[in-house]
């Protein structure tokens, strides 16, 4: 089974992708149009503030076969290097104190409910969660969380089903533009550094084929805005065509293989 997910953000100050590609909700609509053509289900994780301030675009998104999950209220608000360092040092994660997390998650859930939506799934912005996050999510009746990246299988812990991403993430792997030493950074999710779009697509295909043979679910994170900025969805068209060969599901439909 294939579980395709994407993250859709409200405005982030200084975000170069948004400056190049414009509204992430507009990108999400195009992303969903491509998936509709190939009959692929997806889960998009979205900020609570987007539901509040861009409700008409959210309503357009909901016309597609998509599930919306929570993605914090507004990307932690105005973030700085000092604020990030302080939170990591004193709270063990970028999401901050339990009080802040509780307020943020509750606020996000309220925006979902105002639109008649149940917030069953969640991904913390920048995977910035800790154990307190999961406790608060459980208190808010969230059951499916996708905050881990790696090869481990999905597992249930204290009432939360953790669904790790097990395919290299587009935004952390693909090089934008020409491959140069400076964009082959060590933080890429490929050991050789950033790679070309076609190399990433080849890895994606091989991993999914391997997972299917081994009866493992494949969980992907592909950002609508990244696909727009990269090549105006040309790569994503190829991805969708490949994924259409397999059965797909939304994260809240997750079952072991």
Q: What is the CATH topology?
A: TIM Barrel
Number of domains: 1
Oligomer classification: single chain
Mean pLDDT, to the nearest integer, reads 92
Helix content: 40-55%
CATH class: Alpha Beta
CA-to-CA gap between the ends?
Answer: 7 Å
SS-based class: alpha/beta
Report what the structure shows.
The chain has 257 residues and is of the alpha/beta class. It has a single domain, classed as TIM Barrel (Alpha-Beta Barrel), CATH 3.20.20.370. Helix content is 42%, strand content 12%. It is built from eleven helices and eight strands. A four-stranded parallel sheet has the order 3-2-1-8. Strands 4-5-7-6 form a four-stranded mixed sheet. A hairpin with a 2-residue loop joins β6 (155-157) and β7 (160-162). α2 runs parallel beside α4 (55-61) and α6 runs parallel beside α7. The longest helix is centred in the middle third of the chain and has 17 residues, at 98-114. The radius of gyration is 17 Å and the shape is globular.
Question: What can be said about this structure in brief?
Answer:
By secondary structure, the chain is of the alpha/beta class. The protein has helices at 16-21, 24-37, 48-53, 55-61, 81-91, 98-114, 131-139, 170-173, 197-213, 224-231, 234-243, and strands at 2-8, 42-46, 66-70, 121-122, 144-145, 155-157, 160-162, 218-221.
């Amino acid at each position: 089974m294939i579980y395709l997910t994407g993250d859709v953000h409200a405005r982030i100050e200084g975000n170069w992708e948004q400056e190049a590609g414009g509204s992430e909700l507009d990108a999400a609509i195009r992303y969903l149009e491509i998936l509709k053509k190939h009959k692929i289900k997806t889960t998009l994780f979205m900020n609570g503030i987007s539901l509040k301030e861009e409700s008409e675009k959210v309503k357009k998104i909901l016309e597609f076969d998509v599930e919306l999950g929570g993605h914090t209220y507004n990307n932690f608000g105005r973030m700085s290097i000092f604020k990030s360092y302080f939170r990591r040092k004193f709270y063990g994660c970028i999401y901050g104190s339990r009080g802040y997390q509780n307020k943020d998650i509750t606020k996000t859930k309220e925006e979902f409910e105002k639109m008649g939506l149940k917030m069953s799934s969640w991904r913390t912005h920048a995977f910035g969660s800790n154990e307190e996050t999961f406790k608060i999510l459980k208190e808010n009746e969230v059951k499916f969380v996708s905050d881990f990246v790696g090869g481990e299988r999905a597992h249930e812990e204290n009432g939360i089903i953790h669904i790790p991403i097990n395919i290299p993430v587009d935004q952390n792997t693909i090089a934008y533009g020409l491959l140069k030493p400076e964009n082959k950074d060590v933080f890429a999710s490929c050991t050789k550094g950033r790679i070309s779009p076609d190399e990433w697509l080849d890895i994606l295909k091989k991993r999914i084929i391997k997972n299917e043979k081994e009866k493992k679910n494949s969980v992907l994170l592909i950002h609508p805005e990244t696909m727009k900025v990269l090549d105006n969805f040309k790569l994503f068209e190829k991805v969708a065509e490949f994924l259409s060969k397999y059965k797909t599901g939304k994260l809240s439909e997750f079952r072991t293989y």
